[in-house]
Task: structure prediction
Amino acid sequence: MSADLGLQTYVVNLKRRQDRRERITRQLPAELTVEFTSDWDGPFDGAALDGEVLRALGVGLFPWRIESNNPWWNRTLKYGEVGCTLSHLACWKRGLETDAPLFMIVEDDVRLVDGFLPRLLEGIEAVRENGEIGLTYLARCPMEPDQLAWPGFVRPGFSYCTWGYLLDRETARQLVDAQVEMAVIPVDEFLPAMYLDHPRPDVRTRFPRRIEALAFAPPLLADPSDELSDSDTETSADAWVLT
Result:
């Protein structure tokens, strides 16, 4: 079924989180073609990153912390956030190396809702009938009002969380071309910057909008926070790069 749609699935998972891999594997429909980032070599685990590693890789960090009432902006970038962004970037690049026209990226702590696969497939067909997939969130945390696109979908306002989303090839290419690895910000800040004018002028200048976005409404993934609270990003150390 996924082959008919040309859908390739990537799960963001750390090598040391076999527990999460096993858990989400039990949920994923057998019809999906799936790869795990834990099977790849890469600078994905914040626990293994430091300034020397990032400098050797040519990874740059955006000057993230500013004085703000937003607690996510008023603190230093975490190594776990750097690794997470680089993991998502690796999925986009990996997808572009395939012939698949459509990619699905999900994080390993999500919970799939009942009827996930038929709702996903029906949604993909509905989007294609009305336009392009672009970036289509399966679930997220809205921070401002959305706009109705058509039944079952909205055009998202600023949103946090990258629990799961679809990308078509052109959108993946646009994300890769933005070169977030040269000025890393959290991936759940980067994606909104790509489809709307980011509320932070410094982010908006570095990452001007370049794609279109949709979101399933209601979502296809359940908020994992009520079941898993052991964040690998928030508990990681503050990030820095040697100069």
In short: The mean pLDDT is 91. The chain has eight helices and ten strands. The helical segments are 2-5, 18-27, 51-57, 79-96, 116-130, 169-177, 187-195, 201-206. The chain has one domain: 2-226.
